[in-house]
Write a structure and sequence with these properties.
The chain is an alpha/beta fold. The chain folds into 3 domains: 86 residues, Gyrase A, domain 2, CATH 3.30.1360.120; 95 residues, no CATH class; 146 residues, P-loop containing nucleotide triphosphate hydrolases (Rossmann fold). A hairpin with an 8-residue loop joins strand 1 and strand 2. The chain is globular.
């Protein structure tokens, strides 16, 4: 096992449909590239479905691989525990199961990889004792007051959860809907090729951007259109469309771009919002639509502002997520217990978090 690499499970341990592993440290990307058996090196920003194979070439799993940097890669595996253990063995790394000893140390660990300034400010407060003070105050409260105060603290944690776990927002829609143009506007540079030829975007591209105070992972995905077997490269484009569908299923929010003369999909759910894209191409007699209208090509600043407003509203992202000196629970398990435990069990949990004797 490598002493330089570290594996950490980002999903709750146990059985589940998907298990997400984070491999970090020097050589992380190189190690995953060997496991993927790629003909070319994976590069930062890449996100796609890849076959994982052992040294003999036997298939281990088909996993989504997200390359954050040369020193950090995520593997989205199918959830069988035996499969996860096998992949870890093939990577030559043992899972890190030694949590920091105190609340403050846990916050310091997250602070080192904070994805935004707001996240760093909140975590810095926790590393300096803000959450400890809040939890100690809960222990001093009566049973009658404990529940309400604990739920208020949990709400603060839920409002801040996207700070350290940036939401994944997927741009989707038919071909030539302006997804890549909008993606470049959000990123702030020409990150992907924009062309009117249908099927130009084949793979998924991911970039982390700041929308207000929040870091957000934005994905550009292949456009939807019917394909015939006779079309050249139809198989490659179909694979891109399959990856786009997988991305939409795993997204925290899907922004479906609806260009003029198109309709949104019939299965718009709670995790999807529509945008009228290419609004500059609308005919004067076009029917009004109940969605925001954007033209990323001719009014990029306005398009970016509309997207930021839509994402913030859909995910309930506070405009000012940092309240100086406020205690904020930053692990999901703590929030769930603050919301639901009865007083005696909650007091026991808080004492354990504070590492206090019973």
């Amino acid at each position: 096992m490598s002493a330089d690499l570290r594996a950490r499970e980002l999903t709750a341990r146990g059985r589940g449909a998907i298990r997400v592993l984070e491999l970090s440290g020097p050589g992380a990307l190189e190690r995953v590239t060997r496991l993927v058996c790629a003909r070319r090196h994976l590069v930062p920003g890449e996100f796609g479905l890849r076959a994982l194979r052992d040294e003999q070439g036997a298939l281990l799993d088909e996993a989504l691989v997200l390359v954050d940097s040369a020193a950090r890669v995520e593997l989205h595996l199918h959830g069988a525990p035996a499969l996860v253990e096998r992949v870890l063995r093939e990577l030559g790394v043992a899972p890190d199961e030694s949590p920091p000893r105190t609340l403050e140390q846990r916050a310091e660990e997250r602070l080192a990889v904070a994805p935004s300034e707001a996240a760093a400010r909140v975590l810095l407060d926790q590393s300096e004792g803000a959450l400890r003070a809040e939890l100690e105050a809960l222990l001093r409260s009566s049973d009658e007051d404990l529940g309400a105060a604990a739920r208020a603290l949990a709400r603060r944690g839920r409002a801040a959860r996207w700070l350290w776990d940036p939401p994944r927002v997927v741009l989707a829609g038919p071909v030539n809907a302006g997804k890549s143009t909008l993606f470049n506007v959000l990123v702030g540079r020409e990150r992907v090729v924009v062309d009117a030829t249908p099927g130009t975007t084949r793979d998924a591209v991911r970039e982390r951007v700041l929308l207000g105070a929040h870091a957000v992972d934005v994905f550009d995905s292949a456009g939807e259109r019917a394909l015939s077997e006779q079309e050249e490269d139809a198989g490659i484009e179909r694979a891109g469309q399959a990856l786009a569908e997988e991305l939409r299923r795993a997204a925290d929010l899907v922004l479906w771009l609806v260009p003029p003369d198109h309709e949104p999909p019939g299965d718009v759910g709670t995790r999807m919002r529509c945008l009228r894209s290419c609004a500059d191409l609308e005919r004067e007699d076009s029917s009004p639509v109940p969605w925001p209208r954007i033209s990323a090509k001719f009014a990029p600043a306005r398009a970016r502002a509309r997207v930021e407003e839509l994402v913030r509203a859909a995910l309930e992202l506070p405009a000012e997520p940092w309240i100086p000196g406020a205690g904020v629970p930053f692990e999901s398990g703590w929030i769930e217990r603050l919301e639901g435990d009865e007083p005696a069990r909650l007091r026991g949990a808080i004492r354990a978090w504070l590492a206090l004797p019973d």
